[in-house]
Write a structure and sequence with these properties.
The chain is an alpha/beta fold and about 675 residues long. The chain is built from 22 helices and 26 strands. The strands form seven sheets. Strands 5-4-17-16-15-6 form a six-stranded mixed sheet, covered by helices on one side. A six-stranded mixed beta barrel has the order 21-25-22-24-23-26. A five-stranded parallel sheet has the order 10-9-8-12-13. Strand 12 (about 285-290), helix 14 and strand 13 (about 325) form a beta-alpha-beta unit. It starts with a strand and ends with a strand. It binds ligand MGD (2 copies), iron/sulfur cluster (SF4) and molybdenum atom (MO). Molybdenum atom binds near residues 10, 108 and 137. Iron/sulfur cluster binds near residues 7, 13 and 15.
């Protein structure tokens, strides 16, 4: 009998799973239909999960460093020895430098609610450790959507079949959320038009009725021009706006700077294409915009997301099934996972993960003395990789890496703790695309000595004398603390899954309304202007220079989830480059090239292809050092600058030069 579970990975789809287990080991994983969006199929990555669980890179025992930092040479120790060492280092740093000298670094490795912000948050808060600003993803889009709509959930993918027009904007569901695809295809078969706005000719873009190959970072110009055009041409829904929106005149004044011609020029797209898009959007209902995260990872990220999600309000696209927008649905459930921490947020300083390298090298009040990494792979995933590496190389820094597999970050650890992986521990997860909540116990045995996050952090609390009698402990008690009296636990018990109060297919502005304090849609939130230090809708200048003219972007691939599964891709990963950029540099397909800027350099193979627009290079996010010729990845060229609002990472603002390696 297959066992039921779900996928907690950082993916919108939150698949419900059926797992074949033999003698405590996972032998096969597939989807079932308990989550209706899963519809019985899953991605190839998770189908190959046994390779992650039982492959040679899996960490099986605690270890301490024996060689130089960065070399990844370790010797096996017991859990007791490893934890005592960690405890001694934490105590020592706290005594001499204060709690803020302790830095935790955790992110999306496990998107589940039990493996992050429960007993770990309890530990950090009670220690007075530096707080972490988790801004590496979704920070600018979340800022925009929270200010404008109070993070109202979006159109369910299942309802895309109802749409006459689907605009997929800065999102690549063919890789990053495959369960939306059947609904997009079904809509197309029923005559819906598909528009894709993306600097790359993705598979979806190639099947679209219209593809705008936008310059990276220029989306705000397109969205404001569309808004302006709707008003100017009598296609704004003034009655809807009067009833449900505020700051309309302010928005109009800002957007008035943008006509379609100026926007086409700024965004590097054809004016005729923009005119077609404007006309289609005005005419079609239901019309839905799938706004992704590709467009947020630059200096204009928050303004772009805001200008995009303003459009359905202006054009009056809400109120019908299949009409509106989809961004993140992570707030479909009103749950506070940190309740399980049983400890309020501390007043300690906050460190932004996007500047990890700078923080490790420059923070002085106090310096970071202990870095504790879990649910994250900072060497692979954070900006300014050279600085991150230099920081990790500090002799006076004690680094703990609590991980499932021997990745690039583990190489820099002083102590390595082996973590259980999905299916080996209990998990409670909500999708940020699929609007479902799932809860399962472990279905497979942990490998060797691997242990779940929730147990290890609880034990560290105890060893550090930070334990309280009323602390929930163990996965059941933690889940209970999070779910409280919401009624969700009994739903899960009865049906194997829970749906949010408004159901899994809410109609925007009918079943759900904006969660802003006044319940209105805010088209020009003053808080965003304040944070941006001026007009957050401004199109900031492209960071390209004559010396570094090419835009290196690093969106997701279908082979990995961020850096997760990187060990299973054993080949070199080629960087895509347009023929018009390759030819003048004497570069041909298959060449080895040097990609560089002031921050660093990366040596990679090249694939010359028209699948990226001219002026743009593509190498995916999350790559490991073994995927390139010199062990550096895109992040070695990514500045640690912040987005306009939200202090997000500007991964796609890397501007570089490329030359043949033998030149
Ligand atoms: N260049 C570039 N870089 C990017 C991006 C980009 O667009 N361009 N995008 C960014 C985005 S969107 C994101 S979300 C981040 C993700 O950045 P990260 O969160 O750092 O990366 P992940 O690969 O999701 O997860 C890291 C690790 O968590 C571990 N892990 C998983 N579950 C558990 C657990 O239960 N316990 C413990 N202890 N460990 C666990 C996994 O083994 C994995 O190695 O990367 C960002 N990096
Ligand atoms: N297989 C797989 N699935 C994943 C992930 C993964 O790594 N692999 N990561 C998960 C995570 S953490 C996240 S956050 C989501 C992200 O999922 P997506 O929203 O799809 O985000 P990205 O992959 O960063 O980029 C999406 C598209 O935006 C394009 N793009 C880049 N810059 C711009 C721009 O300035 N404007 C516009 N219009 N488009 C631009 C890219 O070319 C890319 O095709 O996916 C999740 N799902
Ligand atoms: S990574 Fe996404 S598509 Fe793959 S099984 Fe998990 S939730 Fe489903
Ligand atoms: Mo992400």
């Amino acid at each position: 009998m297959p066992k039921q579970s779900h996928c907690p990975l950082d993916c919108p789809d939150a698949c419900s799973l059926e797992v074949d287990v033999e003698a405590g080991r996972v032998v096969a994983v597939d989807g079932n239909s308990i989550n209706s969006l899963t519809a019985g199929f899953i991605c190839s990555k998770v189908r190959a999960l046994p390779e992650l669980l039982y492959g040679k890179e899996r960490l099986r025992h605690p270890m301490v460093r024996v060689g130089a930092k960065g070399t990844g040479s370790f010797e096996r120790v017991s859990w007791d020895e490893a934890l005592e060492l960690v405890v001694a280092q934490i105590k020592g740093a706290r005594e001499h430098y204060g709690g803020e000298s302790l830095m935790q670094l955790s992110y999306g490795g496990s998107n589940g609610l039990l493996t992050q912000d429960t007993t770990d948050a309890r530990l950090w808060r009670r220690l007075g450790a530096s707080n972490l600003a988790r801004t590496v993803c979704a920070a600018p889009t979340t800022r925009a959507v929270t200010e404008m709509y109070g993070k109202m959930p979006g159109v369910a993918f299942q309802d895309y079949v109802e749409a006459q027009l689907i605009i997929v904007w800065g999102c690549n569901p063919g890789a990053t959320g495959i369960h939306a695809l059947p609904f997009i295809r079904a809509a197309q078969e029923s005559g819906a038009k598909l528009v894709v706005i993306d600097p790359r000719r993705t598979k979806l873009a190639r099947s679209a009725d219209l593809h705008l190959e936008v310059k990276p970072g220029a989306d705000v110009a397109i969205a404001l021009a569309l808004g302006n055009w709707l008003f100017e041409n009598g296609h704004a829904d003034e009655a809807f706006l009067a009833a449900h929106a505020v700051e309309i005149d302010g928005y109009r004044r800002r957007a008035a700077d943008w006509d379609l011609a100026r926007s086409a020029e700024a965004a590097g797209v054809a004016l005729a294409d923009l005119q077609v898009l404007a006309q289609w959007y005005a005419e079609s209902s239901p019309a839905v915009i799938r706004c992704g995260w590709g467009l947020e990872r630059n200096r204009n990220g928050c303004g772009a997301a805001a200008a995009i999600v303003a459009l359905p309000a202006i054009a009056g696209k809400f109120g019908v099934r299949g009409g509106g927008y989809t961004m993140s649905n992570s707030r479909a459930f009103d749950l506070d996972a940190t309740l399980a921490a049983n400890e309020p947020v501390s007043t300690a300083r906050t460190l932004n993960m996007n500047r990890l390298g700078r923080t490790l090298l420059e923070a002085s009040d106090p310096p970071v003395k202990v870095l504790f990494v879990y649910n994250a792979n900072p060497v692979a995933t954070l900006p300014d990789q050279e600085r991150v590496l230099a920081g990790l190389a500090r002799d006076d820094l004690f680094t703990v890496v609590f991980e499932q597999v021997h990745n690039d970050t583990v190489d820099w650890a002083d102590v390595v703790l082996p973590a259980t992986a999905m299916l080996e521990h209990a998990e409670l997860s909500k999708g940020y695309g699929a609007m479902v909540l799932q809860h399962h116990g472990p279905v497979a045995d942990p490998v060797d000595e691997a242990r779940p996050n929730y147990d290890v952090f609880a034990e560290l609390c105890e060893r550090l004398g930070l334990w309280r009698d009323d602390d929930p402990v163990g996965p059941e008690a933690l889940a209970e603390a999070i779910l409280g009296s919401s009624g969700l636990a009994s739903q899960i018990e009865e049906r194997g899954i829970a749906l949010p109060p408004a159901g899994e297919r809410p109609v925007q502005m009918v079943d759900i309304i904006p969660g802003t304090p006044d319940g209105k849609i805010h088209l020009l939130p003053p808080a965003l202007d304040d944070e941006a230090g001026g007009d957050f809708y401004a199109l900031r200048q492209d960071p390209a220079t004559p010396q570094f003219p090419l835009a290196l972007i690093s969106p997701a691939t279908n082979k990995m989830v961020s850096s997760t599964f990187g060990q299973t891709v054993r080949r070199q990963w080629p960087m895509q480059m347009h023929p018009d950029d390759a030819a003048p540099r004497g570069i041909t397909d298959g060449d080895s090239v040097r990609v560089h800027n002031d921050l660093g350099e990366m040596h990679v193979l090249v694939q010359v292809t028209e699948r990226v627009r001219a002026g743009v290079l593509f190498l995916p996010k999350g790559l490991w050092s073994h995927h390139t010729l010199n062990g550096r990845t895109s992040n070695a060229l990514v500045p640690d600058t912040y987005t306009d609002c939200g202090e997000g990472a500007c991964f796609n603002d890397a501007r570089v030069q490329v030359a043949r390696l033998d030149a």
